[in-house]
Amino acid sequence: MKKLFGTDGIRGIVGKELTADLSFRLARVFATIITRDHLPEPWAVVIGRDTRSSCDTLEDSISSGLTSRGVNVSLAGVIPTPGLAYLTRTRGFNGGVMISASHNPAEYNGIKFVSHAGFKITEKEESEIERGLENYDQTRFPDVPHGSIKRDPTLPVRYAEYLKQIEKISLSGLKVVIDLSNGATFSIGPALFADLGANIVAISDKPDGKNINLNCGATHLDTLQKAVLTNQADLGLAFDGDGDRLLAVDEKGEIVDGDQIVLIEALELARNGKLQNNTVVTTVMSNYGLEAALRERNITLKRTPVGDKYVVEEMTKSGAVLGGEQSGHIVFLDCNTTGDGLLTGVKLLATLKRHGGKFSALAAQMERLPQVQLNVNVNRTKDWDRNCAVQNAITKASLQIQEKGRILVRASGTEPIIRVMVEGKDNSLNNKLATDIANAIQTEVGANRL
Fold first, then answer.
1. Are 89 and 95 in contact (CB under 8 A)?
2. Residue 143 structural domain
3. Same domain for 102 and 197?
C-alpha cells in the first residue's frame, strides 16, 4: 500500500486520491484507536473544516465512520486547524479531525488527525492507521450503538475568546491589512483583531468554496503588498487556507517571512525573561541569517527536518516555547500545540505596539542571507551520501564558507532529486560552491549515469 500520510496529514485531489469511501474507512480505523485507548465511553471527537466545497462530503463521510463505531461527533464548522487543536485539548474530546488541504488549491482537500492532547498524531499512530486500512476488508468490527452528531457554533467562538486574552494590550492606533485567503480565518479573523482595537482592512474574505488560496493568502503575497501601500497601513498579515501559517508585509510593502517573525518574537520573549532554556527551534530550511542573529544574542538554535510536527517534537524534548518554519508555521508552545496564524498575528501586533516605531525596524533585526538552490536528478536517493567523491565536494565547500554561511544537501522525500542549498553573504561564492557540489552529485549518481 502506498504511504498515505505526508508531513501534514493526508492530502489529494477530491474524487481521485481522496474519496468519500476512503475518508469513511479512515474515520472507522481512527475510531478503533480512540475507543481502545480511551476508556470508558462515551467517546467524543470534534471535526473542523476550511471553506472548500468538498468539505461537506468529507465531513459527512467522516462523521458517519466515527458514529458507526460509537463515537459522538461535534461539528465545529469552519475553523482554523490550531482552533481545532485548542478545542480538542481543552473541551474533553478524545480526538479531533481537521478537513483541509492547507495552502493547496481548491480541488485538493486533506484530513489531519489530532490527539486528545491537541498534538498531531505521531508517525507510529499514522502507521497504525495505514495498517488498519490495509486490513480493513478482513477486519470484523464489533457491533456498537451509534454515536450522535451535533453542530456546535459556539466552538469557534471559544477559540477566538481564548486568543483575545493572551496579550493584555490594546492594539488601537495600528492599521492592519489582513489577507484571509478566503479560508478558515475569514470569519473569526477580522472580528478578533477589531475587538483587540486594531483598525482592520480585510481582503480575500469572501469564500465561495472554490477560491481558497486563489492568488491570495500566505502563498501569494503580492496582493497584500499592494493593499498595505494603498491603505498606508502599518503592516499586513497573510494567512494560509487553514490558518496555521502567517507571513507578514511591512509598511514599505516588503515581505517579512517566518524566520524574521521567529527572531522578532524570540527577542521579545528573551527581553521579558520568558524564552525557556534560551532556545529556539526551526527546520533545516531556516535562513542562516536567523542562526547568526540568534547566536549574536547567545540564543541556541536547534534545527529539525521540514514539517512543523518535527518542530513541535523537538520543542517538547528541549523545553523550548518558541519554534517555527520559514514558511510561517510559528509555534508558541505555552499557548497552543501547533502552528497558529491568528495567535502569531496577535503576538506580532502586540510586540509592535509595545515598541512603537515601524514594523520594518523590527524585521531588520535579521539580515536574510542570499541563498542558492540547485536540484540534481539522480537514479536513486538511497545511499547517495555514502559516495566519497560527493562527500569530499561537500567538505571542501564547507571549509570555504566556514561560519560565514551554511550548506545543506538533502534528498527529496517525494522525487529522485538531491537538493543542494548554499547560503552566505557572497552570492557569487554561493553559486560556485553549489555548482561544485551539484556537479559532483551529477557525475557520481546523476540520472544519466549508468
1. no
2. 10-156
3. no
- State residue 40 phi and psi, 5-degree precision: -85, 180
The C-alpha cell 532529486 sits at: 417
Is residue 1 domain-resident?
Answer: no
> Can you give the pLDDT at residue 413?
67
**Nearest alpha carbon to residue 91 among 5, 162, 3, 9:** 162
Residues forming beta bridges with residue 150, ordered by sequence position = 74
pLDDT computed for residue 445 by the predictor: 86
Show the cell assigned to 355.
515598541
Confidence category of residue 450, pLDDT binned at 50, 70, 90: very low
Residue 389 within a domain: yes
Q: Is 121 in the same domain as 137?
A: yes
- Total number of domains constituting the chain: 3
Same domain membership, residue 100 and residue 244:
no
What are the pLDDT digits (tens) for 21-58? 999 999 999 999 888 877 777 899 999 999 999 999 99
CA angle, corner 359, sides to 314 and 370, nearest 5? 60
Quick: pLDDT tens for 255-311. Answer: 999 999 999 999 999 999 999 999 999 999 899 999 999 999 999 999 998 888 899
Give the separation between CA 347 and CA 133, rounded to whole angstroms.
41
Nearby residues of 415 by Cβ (< 8 Å), 6 or more positions away: none
| DSSP symbols for 58-97 | HHHHHHHHHHTTTEEEEEEEE--HHHHHHHHHHTT-SEEE
In a domain, 161, yes or no: no
Distance (Å) of CA 41 to CA 221, 299, 362 = 47, 46, 51
Q: Are residues 253 and 378 in the same domain?
A: no
- Are 16 and 41 in a shared domain? yes
Is residue 307 in some structural domain?
yes
- Tell me how far the alpha carbon of residue 401 is from its chain's centroid: 31
Residues 343 and 376 grouped into a single domain: no
- Taking the C-alpha atoms of residue 271 and residue 277, their distance in angstroms, rounded to an integer, is 13
Mutual angle of helices 258-271 and 341-355, in 10-degree steps: 60
pTM, whole model, 2 decimals? 0.91
What pLDDT sits at residue 414? 64
Specify the CATH number for the domain of residue 198.
Answer: 3.40.120.10
| In contact, 141 and 28? CB cutoff 8 Å | yes
- End-to-end Cα separation, the chain, in angstroms: 29
Q: At what angle do helices 341-355 and 81-90 cross, to 10 degrees?
A: 100
Length in residues, the chain: 450
Q: What is the mean pLDDT of residues 134-143?
A: 84
Which residue out of 102, 115, 181, 327 is catalytically annotated? 102
Active-site residue, 64 included = no
